[in-house]
Amino acid sequence: MGQWRRAYPGAIKLGEFREQLRDWLSSHTQAQHANGQIEVVVTSAGSIAALVCEVMGLPDASWYSLLRVIRNASLTEVLYSKGKVSLLSFNGVSHLPPQLNTSM
């Protein structure tokens, strides 16, 4: 990640990225009013790691650890219920055949 930051010096810092994601999550969950609503969001490992950190209240150092283990095409579920956001599942790959179970 340090090499990536040096290659793209104008890139957003992790704290700013998490803040933007936190704002998106807050506005997105507040806008949802239907009980039982399911929504699919497709994104990258960096966003997933940051989202998990936000939902779990983890520090920035955890982002790097999570980023290293997120598998390609994995599923992470976030539950929004009764005004609270919770992590329901993380990094699931049971929907993939073994030969497609890969990571970065």
Describe this structure in words.
The chain is an alpha+beta fold. It is 44% helix and 15% strand. It is built from four helices and two strands. Strands 1-2 form a two-stranded antiparallel sheet. A hairpin with a 2-residue loop joins strand 1 and strand 2. The longest helix is centred in the N-terminal third of the chain and has 18 residues. It is globular, with a radius of gyration of 15 Å.
* Sheet with the most strands, sense and barrel status: 2 strands, antiparallel
The total count of strands amounts to 2
The overall pLDDT, averaged over residues, is 87
Looking at how many chains there are and whether they match, the oligomeric state comes to single chain
Helix/strand/pairing category: alpha+beta
Helix content: 40-55%
Shape: globular
Distance separating the two termini: 13 Å
